[in-house]
Every structure is written in structure tokens, then in C-alpha cells.
Amino acid sequence: MVTIDADARPATRILVKRHALSVRITHWINVLCLSFLILSGLQIFNAHPALYWGQYGADADTPFIAIEAVRDGDGLRGVTTIGPVSLTTTGVLGVSSYNGQERARAFPSWLTIPSYRDLGMGRYWHFFFAWLFAINGAVYLVYGFISGHFRRDLAPKLEELKPAHIGHEIITHARLDFPKGEAARRYNALQKLAYLGVVVLLALMVLTGLTMSPGVNAIVPWLVDVFGGRQSARTIHFICATLIVAFIIVHLVMVLLSGVWNNLRSMVTGRYAIRLEGPRT
Amino acid sequence: MKKLLTRRSFIVGSTIGAGLSLSGCDVLTGSDSFSRVLKLGETITMGAQRLFLSDKALAREFTEADMSPVFKSNGTHRPDSAEYAALAENNFVDWRLVIDGLVDQPLSLSLAELKRLPSRTQITRHDCVEGWSAIGKWTGVPLGLLLQAARLKPNARYLVFHCADEYEKTLDGTGQYYESIDLVDAFHPQTILAYGMNGTDLPIPNGAPLRLRVERQLGYKHAKYLMRIEAVESFAAFGRGNGGFWEDRGYEWYAGI
């Protein structure tokens, strides 16, 4: 496993064990589930593309996020409203083309499962993968606590949370100057915070999702109060999903920039290559 | 340079892959065997909810201050048959609710008779499958009370609700709205046949003269414009066999989520 080429290079490239088997398996199941959950979730959102705060919210009530199509002369104009701000988003949000025709639909067909409008089937996709996602997430959480994965790998140390340290990491990250050598054996503070943050977001997705269920409301009535009402829960569900998509984009960019094959190998085989300052001859 | 090309081909490759897999989803959605797998989710959801949901666990009830200013009317706003028009014209005096099927004592009740029976008033949240919610006040007869009077036969497992509205024009009549629930929901204390809404007679857009309230499930289960309730052993013979108008069009029969 150890490659030593001390004559040609001053550093030694070694493969270290990075990800446990449980982390790798749950990671890839999560990738599968989230892909289908997000895309079928957008299909469900399209059935009523407006978000409210509180217990109720329907056509006569004022939403604070809405993606609509409005008449504009002979055609349609897509309008996305967030609070007091309204933007024209024709082509992507509100109005987009389906089979060459301009259609009123919140998210475009290339972002929904199924691509055509079918709330019923969108829900079947969503809840099938929701179950798989919840079971997979539960396995990951139990593993994370029992194995010490959270404490050892993800919990930031106190000194890592100091503003100066975080600020320094943000600057080195922005310069694409990633940790090397011994420092690359562990996650840095930004990684720890991002991974813990996404675990919290994913847990919120399950909880807000359950809060939208009238059956679950009767089983655990206090859950709906935690989120300030069913429509608030639906809004938080959507905001958390948006943040998860943002995480995924940053995560993929960082995977690409910090050595795509090394990162991919580590999440498949568990082995991650790092360069140590090698013995000079 | 070599690395850059690899990265680019990786991105291009995964984009094409994602596009193909998305259109693949449409193919899978249309496949019977695959959608049967997806529908396992509904079986697990119903099993889990029924496991944790005691038969008597109540849906949240609100106060008048919590009510929606406007309660949205969805689906049919006014059934368009001549029979319904005649009934509505006469303020539903000639309307009767029939309860039959697998019962020992079939019933036929007028609106006035229903209003003389013990009633329950509840302010609850109505959750549409589309995602919106509205809070309204409902007054009606507990369904369990009527079923006790009609005396269900031992083999009765479901109640099928026949409605006055034809929500989709079809040649074979399968566009007629209907719904079904099982006996767990039928005998739930909040399951009522509502003739009053927000302190007045149930308005036509919301299902006059009588609609079902089954508070622990989504809106499409709350059948409007009730004409007849039939106790059955199986709902396979009705509509297209899935237990309801929307169930026949790809929605879950158990709408607890």
C-alpha cells in the first residue's frame, strides 16, 4: 500500500483508511434516495407552488414564496415571488417548455419525476424513497454514535471553532489551498461543520415531512407545534431541501477541485491518498 | 491538461447520465411491475401509521380564532346533473341519504332527520393532497352512530360513499366521484357526516347537503355531495377498482400522509 519514491519526490504518497464501510454504503444509498426525493419533491411542489407560514394556507391566503404563471399579452410570464421581491423567471420557473410548448408549471419538466404532471406517481416515488432514506439515515445515526464516528471525525474541537481559525480556513479554502500531509488525515473545521450541518438538515427533512402527515399529527400532536403549523413545516421542508441542494453543489465542486479520483476512491474503497513529507536521501 | 479533460468528461458524462436516467424515470413510472414496487411505500406507511395510531387518537381541534378566512372549494364546485339541480332548487328537502349494502337495517334519512340526531362540531384542518391547508368548523352526525343503527353484517369491511358529482366525463361512468374507508376510520369519533360548515348550512361548493369528514386523512377522502353509503366486503367492483375517484387515477387509497 505504501508507495515510496523518495529519490524523485520529497514527499511520500500513502493510502490511509478514510471511510468506514458503513459510511460508504449509507453515503451511496443516500445519494440514490436524495436524487429521487428532490426530483419527485419538485413534482409534488408543482401541485401547489406556494408556501405559507402557520397552520393553514391556500389560494385566498398570502404566500411568502410563490412560483406562478401570469398572463402577459398573448403569452405567459413566469413570476417567482419571495416576500416583497418578484422576479421574472420565464423559461425555468413558472413558465417553461414541455415538448416544445410553453407551459405554466413551477419547476420545469427536466427537474421533476415524472417529467409530465402526475402528482399521484410523484408521491409514490417520494414516499418509497422516503422510507429507504429514513431507514438508511437511522442506520447511519446509530452507527455514528456507537462507533464514535461523530465524536472522533465530525465533532469540531473547541480551538477549531475560534473565529480566527475559521477565518483562516475560509481564506485557504477560497485559494483552493487544501490541507496536505498530516493535516489531510482529518476533516478540517469547515468540513466538520458542513457535514454535521447536512446531517441536521436531513433530519429536519424527515421531521418536517412527517409533520405534513395528518395521520402523524394525530400520533404525535406536539410535532406540528415544534414547526409552528403544517404550512410552516411545508415551508421549512422546502427551505431545508434548498439548503441541501446548495450543500450538494458545493460538495461536488469541492470533490472535483480537491482531487476527484482520490475522493471517489475513498468513498468507494475507503482508501484516501495523502502526501507526507518524506525522508530525503 | 490530461486531468482537465478527465474532469470535463466526468462532468459531461454525468450530465448526460442524469438526463438519461430522468427520462428513464418516466419509463419506469409507466411500468406496472416497477410501480408495484414503488407502491410498497403506501403499504409500509399504512402499516406504520395503523401500528402507532390508536383507533381513538384525535386529529387536532382548533378554536374559531384559528379558522381560515376563506375555506377553499376544490374539485367539483356544483354537480351539474339535473337531479342535483332539482334537489338544490328545493333546498334539499327531497334529498335522502341511503345506507345499505351489508347491513341488517338499511336506512333512508332526510336532512331534517339527520339534523335531529346527536351531532358533533369540530374545528379541524383540511389538508389537500396538493399541499394547501384550510381550517374550518364542521357540524354533523357521527358516522359510527348511523352504522350502529344500520347494524353492519360481520363480513362488512369497507364503506363506499356514492356522490352526486361526476368529476370527469367518461363513457363508462367511471368519472362519478366515490370514495371508500375502512371500519377503523368509519367508527373514529371525529368521522362525521357534516351538514354544517362554519356555523351555517354546508354550502354547495363545499359539498351540500352532506359530506364526509375523515380527519386523519387527506382532503380527497372527504367525499362531498353524499347520496348513498354502501357497506361492502371489497371495493374492487366499483369504478376502476381502486376504492375511489382519485385512487383510480393513481393516488393512494390510504391517504394518511
TrEMBL record, chain A:
Query: Per the annotation, which location comes first and is thus the protein's main one?
Result: membrane
Quote the subcellular location field of this record: Cell membrane
Query: Topology with regard to the membrane?
Result: Multi-pass membrane protein
Task: Check the record and name the InterPro entries matching this protein.
Answer: Cyt_b561_bac/Ni-Hgenase (IPR011577), Di-haem_cyt_TM (IPR016174), Hydrogenase_cytochrome (IPR051542)
- The question of whether Ion transport is a record keyword is answered with no
Q: Where are the transmembrane segments?
A: 25-45, 124-146, 193-216, 236-261
Q: Which residues form the Cytochrome b561 bacterial/Ni-hydrogenase domain?
A: 18-270
Q: What is this protein called?
A: Thiosulfate reductase cytochrome b subunit
- What organism is listed for this UniProt entry? Kaistia dalseonensis
Q: In the record, what lineage is assigned to the organism producing the protein?
A: Bacteria, Pseudomonadati, Pseudomonadota, Alphaproteobacteria, Hyphomicrobiales
From TrEMBL, chain B:
Record-annotated Oxidoreductase molybdopterin-binding domain positions? 93-233
Top-level taxonomic group: Bacteria
The record's InterPro entries line, in alphabetical order, gives: OxRdtase_Mopterin-bd_dom, OxRdtase_Mopterin-bd_sf
Pfam families, A to Z: Oxidored_molyb
Q: Any idea what this protein is called? A: DMSO/TMAO reductase YedYZ molybdopterin-dependent catalytic subunit
The record lists the organism as: Kaistia dalseonensis
